[in-house]
Amino acid sequence: MATLAVEEVSTIIVGLEHMRNVTYLHVASLVILVFDTLLMLDTEVVFIWSQPWNVVKVLYLISRYFAFIDLSLNVLIQVMPAASESTCKLLYNTLGWTIVTGVCMAELILTIRTWAVLGKKRWIGIFLFTFFVGIWVPEYAIMALLSGPYTFALQDVLQPFLKGCFPAVARVHYLQITWALLLVYDGVLMLFMLVPAYELLVKTGGQSKLVRVVFRDGIIYYIYLFIMSLGNLIVTRILSNDYFTIIMILERVIHTVLACRVILHMREQAWEGSHVHITTISGI
Question: At what angle do helices 221-238 and 172-204 cross, to 10 degrees?
């Protein structure tokens, strides 16, 4: 077995302490996901499972339940016994792709919802589609660049004593670009939602439940996502590379929770406002 210098041992100890802190937030993220899924289950059964299949239903189910795959992979990375370097690379790369895809699906739900609230106007649809592609093509390209550079130089040294994978992360600056792109995207969609929110506010004096739904789901939610992306950007800029995933898993969960709630709230609001079958009054 390889021997380590005192400086290397100290670095490893610090790194393990950082990983413990990251694990705490990852566990908290899993708790949030499970809690929200159980909390919204009754509403989900009525407005998702009992409704006919369509694109939005598929996007909802992907966004909601693929998150459990992401977090399961993340747990496996941290507790898998006797994990080889090749296995760790496979797990990290798979997790990266599933997180990117999950966030992409959540953002697509929010984009469709924004287009619906703005009256499904053709020019807005073209702009949002172009904007979406313009953001997510680079996001996937960056993920492809990040798929190769994970190294696990200390895996053989630490594996006899500790479970899980121990990456030496490279190209963290690429992650900063991904968070910056999400900041821009969510910021633009939030600005779009300010228009109908203001119009409804003036029209109803702020007393309508629809105003509260549009304001909460269209503005407050985007503020949450903006803060999460900003937090990830700050973490990758100023903290140790050991913390590069500390908020990433939480942001994945928050995207899932908010995107799914957007669909459930809109369908619930449409149901209450019309007293007819939900598919006759809303495409989302």
Answer: 160
Q: Pick from 76, 72, 68: which is nearest to 37 by CA? A: 68
pLDDT tens sequence across 212-256: 666 666 678 888 888 888 888 888 888 777 777 788 899 999 999
- At CA 101, angle to CA 246 and CA 190, rounded to 5? 80
Q: What is the DSSP string of 153-173?
A: TTHHHHTTT--S---B---HH
Backbone angles phi, psi at 168, to 5 degrees: -110, 100
Contact predicate 221/181, CB 8 Å: no
135 sits in which H/E element = helix 122-146
* Alpha-carbon torsion angle 246, 238, 93, 10, nearest 10: -80
Contact present, 109 and 262 (Cβ < 8 Å):
yes
Q: Which residues pair with residue 151 across a beta bridge?
A: 168
Q: Residues 165-183: pLDDT tens digits?
A: 767 665 677 888 998 999 9
Contact 144, 86 (CB under 8 A): no
Got the DSSP string for 23-36? Answer: HHHHHHHHHHHHHH
Q: Do residues 255 and 102 make contact, with C-beta atoms less than 8 angstroms apart?
A: yes
Are the CB atoms for 88 and 152 separated by under 8 Å? Answer: yes
